[in-house]
Amino acid sequence: MSSSTNVDLLMKVGEVVDKLFDLDEKLMLEWIQNGAAQPLDQPQEDAEEQPVFRIVPCVLEAAKQVRSENPEGLDVYMRILQLLTTMDDGIQAIVQCPDTGKDTWDLLFDLVCHEFCQSDDPPIILQEQKTVLASVFSVLSTIYASQAEQEYLKTEKVDLPLIDSLIRVFQNMEHCQKKSENSTEPNTEETKKSDLTQDDFHLKILKDISCEFLSNIFQTLTKETVSRGLKEGQLNKQKCSCAFQNLLPLYSPVVEDFIKMLHEVDKALADDLKESFPSLKVQT
């Protein structure tokens, strides 16, 4: 994966690693720990005999190579990163080195804020991007939860663009679900049901991951950030309503705390939202 520019080869290697990690957690742990065990100040002659292999930088380098030429390959490498975050050692492999954590964050942040599911894309694009978005948001959420003190995660820099992207995903998700329900394409009833179930399954995974991530972001918001979001358009009644529809009822306490903060910034909007969501128990 490292130093290769052969996209076809990277694609095949990625698929193998993805399957191996998915089937054999012990092997994945060994790869992670072998990289972590390599001393940073290893003498050059020893390095030639035992080359340093750190899985996360290799995955990132491969992902950057396949990004523009092979979207399916990018999906595979994002899934590898997501698999790594299912283990504590894997999370540490990403975040313990500030440079690796920042490189991972920068790549994934750029993907969700500037490439995937953009405002000028047709909503149906989400069907093509739902699996890779689920992986990317999952890894971002893990880094966000574990590395809040890092400079590259300062809330004023990342929260509003991420909120905007997550809410756009929710909006497109609603469009896709309505389109599936109203589909009139000629097809057998059984095939329709099977396709719909598969689509619903992947969209539900994306929704669950996105909701958890958005709830984590909401919990770190300051009044200043909310005020700026209202001025810049990342937050308004329509977008807040969309977020609440997806977060409720599971994340009711988070939404209620957000409403309390919003009440101090824009009382009229907060009151409108409380009226639209009467189940919220907010004391202001």
Automatic annotation (TrEMBL):
Q: InterPro entries per the record?
A: Synovial_Prolif_Regulator
Q: Does the keyword Nucleus apply?
A: yes
| Protein location | Nucleus
Per its UniProt entry, which superkingdom is the organism in? Eukaryota
Where does the record place a coiled coil? none
Record GO biological process: positive regulation of synoviocyte proliferation
Which keywords annotate this record?
A: Nucleus
Q: Which GO terms describe its cellular component?
A: nucleoplasm
Family, per the entry?
Belongs to the SAAL1 family.
Identify the PANTHER family for this entry. PROTEIN SAAL1, SERUM AMYLOID A
**How is this protein named in the record?**
Protein SAAL1
